[in-house]
């Protein structure tokens, strides 16, 4: 895959003010969050307000939004991006990605054993660019088989060495032996499994507490527990608990003492309740949640991240690619129930955030989930807010991202259409701005009097 292209960085530098702007930058480094410009939006959905605004300008200085309104007075030399024919939204947030991995190995997971750190990082670099181009300027990477590979990617993005979304990472999965986060494969002796794949395998409260400490010491932004069986793992039953309530509570106590949130992979109704009562901050998948689980999520203000699109991709493309029959069967058994429970949880008022589980299906297709969220009960505005202000709040970044309001980073996307009329326009965004810098835009848009290439 071609490595790292991104469009002209809009900065208030003399070079940009010349008659002939430089060509698109093909290779970093660049200075993150340093853009300065005015963006004129034909329609603005700010991520918080219930109604869009029209003909609004957004002024950006040093990568942050400083003013939003009409008729903003600024110095004439400030670069301008004319999006009067577009709908602008906050940069989108995906709360459930696996940015270091792709679906290519799912047909034969033994391939993962041979992935080197360098190859895993290269995959992450490429998938980060694809994710950013899809309009997702912030993501939460909720687990990587190769230990802390995502930590290196996060550091490189923050340093401007590669282009990608703002990234929170979980490091390795905390899972029981043979659980949904333990890459055991029938016929492969455990002694042949690389140690870096099993860093989070534990049994008993003390061991899980120790693994949580290890993850935090390694730089985790969030702890990921595998509380129930998994769909894409051998031997597990999605509806069956794997971690005990005591193991969950022990890991949560360590994380919360360090100020780190915890999310739990939990398909099964009992595991969802165990995780909520154990103190987790969010639930991934929540496929088989019951009425009591919904009530507990409301009472304890626990958000759900429900990946309601990818079941269709697995059913078609997974079969075409020859994925294990066990995986396909478990996907068939949970997909419809998850969507029905998505509707029930939404109607009850539970916070649901956008989480795609990308890497189960190809990165860059994240936006396909919006239509499913609308089909199963959300309004288009609710689906947008699930991927903007609500997701930012669960990330702990409500003061940074998720809204086009003064003080936040200047992370914006734009589409040539109105997602409130057709949510599917978010499947292919036209403009991506992160930190006030343009990473994607059609040729011909005006910035500083010149065309963005």
From TrEMBL:
Protein name in UniProt: Amidohydrolase family protein
InterPro entries: Amidohydro-rel, Metal-dep_hydrolase_composite, Metal_Hydrolase, Metallo-dep_Hydrolase, OTAase-like
Source taxon at top rank: Bacteria
Signal peptide extent: 1-19
Keywords assigned by UniProt, alphabetized: Signal
The Amidohydrolase-related domain, residue ranges: 89-438
Originating organism: Elongatibacter sediminis
GO molecular function per UniProt: hydrolase activity, acting on carbon-nitrogen (but not peptide) bonds
